[in-house]
Every structure is written in C-alpha cells, then in structure tokens.
Amino acid sequence: MGALQSLSDEPEYRELAEKTGFSFEQIGILHKRFKQLSHNEDMLRRADLDTIPDLACNPIRTQIIEAFFDKRNFHQNGDGTVEEISFEEFLVVMSHFRPPALNMTEEQREKVRREKLRFLFNMHDTDNDGTITLEEYRHVVEELLSRSGALGKETAKGIADAAMLEVASISMGHMEPDEFYEGITFEHFLKILKDIEIETKMNIRFLNMDTTTLCNRDSSSIR
Question: Which Gene Ontology terms describe the biological processes this protein takes part in (predicted)?
Fold first, then answer.
C-alpha cells in the first residue's frame, strides 16, 4: 500500500492515470514491463518488440508493432511514425486495449468504442490516406489465411478479393459495373462493425500479460 501511495504522490503518475484510465498499480506493472522490454532504457524501439516470442507467430505482427510507433495513436493530432517511444506513449497505446469501466455513461462508452475502432482502422490504413484500400485489406486477409497453412497464397488472395467486394457492397450499397471502389473510409468501417462489441473483445496478450485481467483488477479506482 505504501508503494502505491508513493506513486499517487508523483504528479506524472497522476497525469498518466487521468490520461489513460489506468490505476497507479496498473501503471506500475506496465512500467516494469516497459523497462524489461527496453532493457532498462527510457525509450522503446521496434527491435525490442520484435523479440517477443508470443508475437513472433502472429500473422499481423507488423501492424501490431507499427501501431506502437504511429503518432495517430498517441491521442494527438500528429501523423507519421517515430523510431522510438517513451513510457507515456507506450501507456497511451496500451490504453486502447482497456475494457470500458462498468459505470460509464452511454456517451462515454460510445467514445471509447470509437477510439478503439479508430485504432484498429489506423492499423490497416498503412499509408495514412484515410481509407483501407483493396491492397491493404487483401494483405491483411492473405496473411491471416495463408499463415494458417491450410490455404495456398492464390486461394487466400481470391478469398481476400471476394471479402473486399462484400465489404464494398455493405459500405456503398449497389455499385455500377464500371464504378471503382476506392476503399473503406472510417465511417464505412464503423458501419461494417456496428454489431461487434469491440469494447470488451479488444485485448492484448503478447506482452506476457492479459490486459483484460490487468484492467479488471482495479478498473474502478480511476475515473
């Protein structure tokens, strides 16, 4: 208890708690993991995440790692990427995986949902042009399917193309034969996932911790 009390006396920890929704205990746990990953340095680099065993076999490992270095995910209005991140930036990215608090209002819950979906959208909008193109979507689906070992690359490509056409029909409705589908905008993305309860399903385990468990331990202590 004394250690937690001392953390609460640190202005930077109070600011981080308010910014991310994590409790002081959770911030302490994540700071310890950050230091392990960064080899006790103050900044974390891609190579540090590249060595995590649980991430090595993940078919979208590249997108996951890049998400930590994408300025769009730092709760700022920046774009582009950085070569290394501080603990604060690491914590802000991790906060996208927090389940919503039980006592949130409907408006607050919708805000959390939108932020989580924006984070997922950014992961697949790799060129930051505001749309997930056929090529970007195809790459993700191909990786997910072909790495399973059950399908060949060409079969995976065909399924990815068919899936994209299905997404286009959901997003745009009827399309003329000569009409070109530019890609999924964020508003289309919201529409496609409107029935998915992303708020509680989006979690992360590759840091040797389960954020669902982590956040349930003390989620009521930060407002």
Answer: cell differentiation
